[in-house]
């Protein structure tokens, strides 16, 4: 879905830029240099990060106490208007898909879904905080409906069944897997009428899940994007906090975080009195190193997200085209696969390889540390250290697509249905491809990948220092993780720098 890139070992060019960029040194130098920087960061982090402080002991600033920000964020009419705007935007996207011109470049729904929402909101979640918890239109529309139809006298909403604990977040995992297939395999995912149908289907699944098991339970267990953007928001510099843990006794979901306060549980935040609520500014990435219960399903979801982001970039390499060309004739003779079938197998195979690699790393950590946890326990313990890598690769792969193709929204805002309107006078706006050039994109990608891996090394080290018996064991246990980070740094740069194939 991203902007198409073209790389050779000595030249970098990007589809849509109309220019090429010659690397000042061979690509291998970039790969080796980036890997060495990540390795050296482990040495530096190891020298300076030694404290075993609890994960909730970090400086915070409550934005709700700020005279200006607090008044705005606590203003109920303002919050209502924000939530209503995004709920109406969802309805608009569905309406344009059903009634508008069925051409992706002339209808606002593909640009809104695949560029502004899917890419843009991921960045906002990682860099600013979990705004999806506020603006989630499915949650807003359901709340409006429950106020009209299903609220009992005690103010709580009845549900049909108790959510089975054994399901954990597997429903969200499955739904995200279907979404990943649509993004990476389904060739007509940008057709407006198809998008409208898919959004309606997902809406019905979400609302039925909320009605059956409870709004917050489904948001925490079944709503794939609430969970995904929540993962990304752990990297962000903001959090919601409830300073009265007695509120948790009324919470319908488990508040897993260990500590005096309840952090990032949005049901508790809604239930709490105003005096017990905080919206804190905090150091970045501390949300990734909290002491909490992490389930197998959660760990699998995180690894799957990282794998699918990588797969999206890998599919645009010439190496992948060679693989398809080699497999397709044999598969066709056997009557087994189409190109879509081969891509589907790849979508399953690459996450399986990621799980294997991460599992082997976890096994090595256990052996190096002598820790009593199982390999699966180790894997769950460190899995959130992979989130910065997923965010970084997302930036490296999509930033030019967002900044260039995202400009489509300017003209489409004036003519969302493709009927020839010009509501805001922007209908004739032309995309400015010079808003960012190939050279900037390349260096931004390198910086994002290196910084993302360094942050992952830091988070893994923080977790290890807290969890292991002593500092020496903690440091030794991280050797396998650092090797994984170094190898993946080089692989990520290789993928970004390969000749890209436009299969459209």
Give a verbal description of the structure.
It is a single chain. This protein is mainly alpha-helical. It folds into two domains: 1-50 and 298-501, no CATH class; 61-237, no CATH class. 60% of the residues lie in helices and 5% in strands. It has helices at 27-48, 69-73, 76-99, 108-127, 132-135, 137-149, 170-184, 192-213, 215-221, 224-233, 266-271, 296-314, 318-333, 339-369, 375-382, 387-404, 408-414, 438-467, 471-477, 479-497; strands at residues 5-7, 11-14, 20-22, 61-62, 238-242, 262-263, 277-281. The strands form two sheets. It has a four-stranded antiparallel β-sheet with strand order 4-7-5-6. The protein has a three-stranded antiparallel β-sheet with strand order 1-2-3, with helices on one face. Helix 7 packs parallel to helix 12 (296-314). The longest helix has 31 residues, at 339-369. The protein is globular, with a radius of gyration of 23 Å. The termini are close together.
Summarize the structure.
The protein has 504 residues and is mainly α.
Task: Give the termini distance in whole angstroms.
Answer: 10 Å
Regions with little confidence, pLDDT below 50 for 5+ residues = 1-19, 499-504
- What is the averaged pLDDT score? 86
Structural class computed from helices and strand pairing: mainly alpha
Percent strand equals under 5%
* Domain tally: 2
Kindly report the spatial arrangement of strands forming the biggest sheet.
4-7-5-6
Sketch the major β-sheet: 4 strands, antiparallel
Helix content: 55-70%
Rg from alpha-carbon coordinates: 23 Å
Principal-axis shape equals globular
Series of secondary-structure elements, N-terminal to C-terminal: EEEHEHHHHHHHHHEEHEHHHHHHHHH
Count of helical stretches: 20
Give the tally of β-strands.
7
């Amino acid at each position: 879905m991203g902007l198409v890139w073209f790389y050779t070992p000595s030249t970098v060019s990007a589809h849509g830029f109309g220019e090429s960029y010659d690397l000042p040194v061979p690509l291998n130098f970039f790969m080796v240099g980036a890997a060495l920087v990540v390795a050296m960061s482990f040495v530096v982090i190891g020298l300076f990060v030694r404290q075993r402080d609890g994960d909730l002991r970090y400086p915070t600033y409550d934005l709700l106490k700020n005279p200006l920000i607090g008044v705005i964020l606590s203003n109920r009419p303002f919050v209502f208007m924000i939530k209503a705007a995004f709920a109406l935007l969802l309805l608009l996207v569905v309406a344009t898909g059903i009634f508008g011109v069925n051409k992706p470049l002339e209808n606002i729904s593909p640009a809104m879904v695949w560029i502004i929402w899917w890419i843009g909101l991921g960045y906002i979640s990682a860099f600013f905080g979990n705004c999806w918890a506020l603006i989630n239109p499915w949650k807003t529309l359901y709340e409006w409906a429950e106020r009209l139809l299903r609220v009992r006298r005690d103010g709580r909403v009845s549900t049909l069944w108790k959510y089975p604990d054994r399901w954990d977040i597997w429903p969200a995992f499955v739904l995200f897997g279907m979404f990943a297939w649509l993004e990476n395999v389904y060739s007509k995912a940008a057709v407006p009428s198809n998008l409208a149908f898919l959004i309606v289907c997902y809406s019905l699944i979400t609302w039925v899940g909320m009605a059956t098991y409870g709004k917050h339970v489904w948001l925490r267990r079944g709503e794939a994007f609430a969970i995904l953007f929540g993962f990304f928001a752990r990297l962000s510099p903001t959090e919601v906090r409830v300073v009265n843990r007695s509120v948790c006794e009324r919470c319908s979901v488990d508040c897993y975080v260990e500590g005096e306060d309840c952090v990032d549980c949005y049901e508790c935040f809604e239930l709490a009195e105003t005096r017990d609520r905080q919206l804190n500014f905090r150091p970045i990435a501390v949300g990734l190193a909290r002491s909490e219960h992490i389930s197998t399903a959660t760990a699998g979801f995180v690894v799957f997200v990282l794998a699918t982001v990588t797969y999206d970039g890998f599919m645009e390499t010439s190496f992948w085209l060679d693989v398809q060309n080699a497999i397709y004739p044999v598969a066709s003779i056997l009557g087994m696969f189409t190109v879509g079938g081969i891509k589907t197998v790849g979508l399953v195979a690459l996450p399986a390889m990621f799980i294997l690699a991460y599992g082997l790393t976890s096994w090595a950590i256990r052996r190096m540390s002598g820790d009593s946890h199982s390999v699966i326990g180790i894997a769950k313990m460190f899995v959130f250290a992979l989130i910065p890598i997923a965010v970084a690769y997302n930036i490296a792969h999509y930033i030019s697509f967002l900044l260039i193709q995202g400009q489509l929204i300017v003209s489409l805002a004036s003519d969302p249905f493709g009927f020839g309107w010009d509501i805001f006078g922007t209908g004739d706006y032309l995309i400015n491809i010079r808003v960012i050039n190939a050279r900037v994109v390349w260096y931004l990608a390198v910086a994002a990948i290196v910084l993302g891996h360094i942050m992952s090394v830091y988070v893994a080290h923080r977790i290890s220092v807290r969890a292991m018996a002593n500092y020496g064991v903690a440091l030794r246990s991280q050797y396998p993780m650092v090797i994984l980070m170094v190898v993946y740094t080089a692989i990520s740069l290789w993928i970004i720098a390969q000749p890209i194939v436009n299969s459209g």
